[in-house]
Amino acid sequence: MKALNNIFPLVKNETIKMIKKKRFYVILLVLIVLVPMFAYAQLRQAEDKREKFGTDWRREVQQAITDNQNSLGSDRVPEEWKKYRQIYIQQMKYYLEHDVNPREPGGVSFTREFLDNAATLFIPLLIMGVGSDIVSSERTGGTVKMLLTRPIRRWKILLSKLLTLLMFVSLIIVSTCLICYLISGLFFGYRGWNMPVFTGFQLRGAEVDISGVHAVPQWQYIFMQAGLIWFVSMVVAALAFMVSVLVRSTSASIVIMMATLIAGNILTNMASSWTSAKYLFMVNLGLTNYLAGTPAPIEGMTLGFSLVVLAVWGACSLVVSFLVFTKQDILN
Amino acid sequence: MNRTSRIWRWAGISSAMSTLLLLAGFIYAVSDIANPSAEARLQGGSSTHTEKNVKAGAWDVTAIGDSLAKGTGDDTGRGFARRTVDLLNKEGETSKLVNNLGINGLTTEELLPMLEDPGVKYALQHAGIILLSIGGNDLFNGTDTLTAGEHVPTQAEIDAAIDESSKHFGEVVAQIKKINVQALLVYVSLYNPFSDLEGMREIGNDAVARWNAMAMNALGDYEGTLVVPTYDLFTQNSSRYLSSDHFHPNGDGYQAIAERMAQGIARE
């Protein structure tokens, strides 16, 4: 306990550095600029649909079902997509049977959809924005020698940086939700907190087991989404942290992390036949899929599996970070 | 110094609270996905029931059935459903396409369970005019093998198919009338797509004639039904009205069918 006593001032110091370097503000700015663009695009799309279907969502959902049923018969559609569409059809039918609009417009619904789409790339990119240079910038700037000449153990310095990073990860996710809701509310209104959302679709191949399906109010659903995204972001932060320790140049560490994340997004779209890809962390970032009941990119992936894979990657990168940082020589 | 302390306090407290909140969300999500059979905590959709009693417009069209209803073969993708709507609108009525529920390759037997779907029922209830096209796949099953000339169905096979399918057809009509008794049910009767095919012409003509007579009979039992003949259109003009797959109409073919429908539908 005594050893941890003097970690507090270090974390404080790091936090103030983070704020003073305006990293966090840049991320807020990115959100404030981009979210209105997404919201506007969605608004246009909604207007387009309203022209065709009026306010009648049941017709729209039924047409979506019919269109997907039609594509099932086509030989040109890959089997993999057919599975997705069969699952989608069954879920949409479930919504119709229970007379619940799956896409009721509103600020809360927008936030839910945005989180689903942002979980695998957008939010991890924001995390990298603060994580990638947290150690390497000290070296690029030469301030690392200043840090290490103080009479504090090296692992404590690194730990304080890690804690600060994790603090900001939480802040980024909460502010993403808030900014998303506040801005999209201007476009779609601020209602929809209690709209029912179905969750608990269990997939067995192309069949959907609906025995476990239950409705939760939308705010609870977002609460769960944010929790899952938080776990993913923690792991991404740990990896970015490791890269930041290993690579001296900030820009190089950003490029490495960005390339990995984008590679993960590409892999999830095409790696279904390469099954051992499921042990890569970047294929497992879509934890919210398990909530929505969309099929995992690779056969055999479950929530438990993804959590373990992510946890192992996260833990390993932390071990590597601490080993390397405490042992390595600081030249330059 | 005071300012930095304030930053630290603000950042520290808000991030600690965020972390606790997100951690709770994470635990909740994992337990919810792991034990999904927790009973429903919420009855879905009680608030949206009110808007269900929208009155169906007398000229609003829902198309249901096989690839013809869908409009397969029409390069513009409009099919007879949208073309009929356009013709009605041109004549001064206010018509819109509620839904086009046509599915490629659908048979009478496959249509029956579809009519139980709430979404399909909803679309049918909101139509003043229901356009039905079904039966072609029952009779000429596996059109790919037919056009490739690999397998020509025999008279006996087609007879058996008609007997079997006409029973389903009767049920389909009864079910649609049960869902929406006020709507005008327009049935697109069959044509023989093989009238230019030696050896298939005779058998096809015979089967189509029997089927159409059966359909006319079945629909005659109900008020507010209409059978639109298409047989004559394609007998001599198959090259003009059929698309390149030799089975579905092309845009002109659908236009001809739509014109017949618009002519047959009663006006005030």
UniProtKB/TrEMBL annotation, chain B:
Q: Which InterPro entries match?
A: Ester_Hydrolysis_Enzymes, SGNH_hydro, SGNH_hydro_sf
* A single MF term (Gene Ontology): phosphatidylcholine lysophospholipase activity
The organism sits in which domain of life?
Bacteria
Output this protein's name: GDSL-type esterase/lipase family protein
Residues making up the signal peptide according to the UniProt record:
none
**Which species is this UniProt entry from?**
Paenibacillus mellifer
- For the SGNH hydrolase-type esterase domain, which residue ranges apply? 63-256
